[in-house]
Amino acid sequence: MKAAAAILIAGVLAAQADPPAVNRDAAIVNEFEKRVASYLKLRQDIEAHMGRLKTTPSEEKISHHEGDLRHKMREARAGVREGDVFTPEISMEFRRLIGLAMQPANAAHIKQSLRRSEPVQLHLKVNDKYPAPVPLQTTPATLLENLPKLPSEIEYRITGRDLVLLDAKANLVVDVLRGVFS
Amino acid sequence: MTVRQAGIPLAALACVLAAIPSVADDLPLKSGSTRFAVIGDMGTGDKPQYEVAAVMEESRRKTAFDFVLTLGDNIYGGSSQADMKKKFEDPYKPLLDAGVKFYASLGNHDNPNERFYKPFNMDEKRYYSFRKGNAEFFALDSNYMTPEQVAWLDKALHDSDARWKICYFHHPLYSDARFHGPDTDLRARLEPIFQAGGVRVVLSGHEHVYERVQPHNGIYYFVLGNSGELRDHDLKRSADVAKGFDTDRDFMLMEIAGDQLYFQTISRRGETVDSGVIERTQK
Known about the structure:
With 182 residues, chain A is mostly helical. Chain A is built from six helices and three strands, in the order ααααααβββ.
C-alpha cells in the first residue's frame, strides 16, 4: 500500500516537473503572444497621443505618421535588444513550428514560393526601418498557417535566412529570429 | 490624329499626349454594362507608364469605363509624396479628373500603408471587396495570405450573390513567364476556395508580361504586369498560354453585360493584342 502511494506521489511530482509537451508548447506560444501584445499596447498608447491615421489624399500625411510613429517607438524601446520577443525558448518553439510547416508535403511549395517572390538579402536589426526600395518577400501562406497568429498590423517577414517580426504600420523591426531558413 | 486634352499643365504628359495612337473601341459597349480597366506593375514614373495611361484616357473617352483595378506594384521605390505624384497622380490625372476610381491591390513593391491613400479606395484594408452592377470584386493581399484572409475570402465569396465574382491580387497562381513563375503554395490555398465560391475570373500581375492562361478548373486566369514595367520576351512557349504579349506594355479593358464578360487587351501603341468573351456558368 505504501509502495503504491509512493509511486502515485512520484508520478504526480514527475507530472508537475515535466508538463506534457502540448501544454509546454502552448505555454511558450502564450508567452510569445503576451510579448507581442505588450509591444502593441505600447504602440497603441503612443498612437493614441498622435491621433489615429485615417484615409487621406495626402501621401505626405501617411509618410509623416509612419515616420513619427517609428521615431516615438524607437525612443520608447531604446533599451530593447534582439531576443526580447524571440527569447531562446520561444525561438526554439518557432524553429520547431517552421520545421513542421516544412514537412515534405508542403516543403516544395513553400520553397518554390520563397524562391519566386523576389527573395531579399537584408541584415535587419531591432528598431530598424524596413528600407522602402526593397520589396517585401511573400511570406508563404502555408508557413503563416503554422505560426502563432499575430495582431493585424504586426507581420512575419522573411529576409534572407531570418524571420523578422515587423510592425507594418510603423515600418519598424520589432525583433529578429536568425538563421531559420536554409 | 486630334486629341482633345486640355488643362494638364505637365510638359511630360503633354509630350506623351501629342503622340497618342488611335485606340480601338471594339468592346460591345452594351447599354447598362459594367466597364472597367485593369493595370499591373505600373508605378515606375517612366515614360512608358505615361504612354499607357494616355492610351487608357483615350480609351475611356470611347468606352466610358469608370473604374480601374490595380494588380499591385502601384508605386516602385518608395511612396513619398513625390513618388505618388510622379508614379500615380500625374500619369493618371486625366482619368482621375474624369472621376475614374482606382481600386488598388498591393504588390511586393508597395508600402502596406498605401491602404490609407484615398485615391486607392482601399478603405484602410489590405483586402476588401466592392460591388459594381452584377459583379463583385475581391482585392486580396497575396504578399501576406494569412489564415484570417483566407477565411474572410471563403465567407465573402459564399455570402455574395453577385453573378460575377472576380478576384485580383499581385502574385499569379499560374504563369508561364520565366522570371518568377507561379506561386504554387498560394495556388494550393486559394484555388479550392475560388472553385467553391464561384469565381470565374482571376487577375494578377508580378510578371512583367501579359498572359491569358488556358482556363483551369473553369477559372480564367490573366497575368498583366506590364502597364509600366516590361520584361521583354520573358514568356515561355507553353500549351498553357492561351495568348501572350511580352514585347510592349499594355492594359486591359473589361465589360460585363449580363452573362458575358468581354475583355480586350490594348498595347501602348493602341493596338488590340488580345480579346474575347467569357460566359458565366452556374456556380
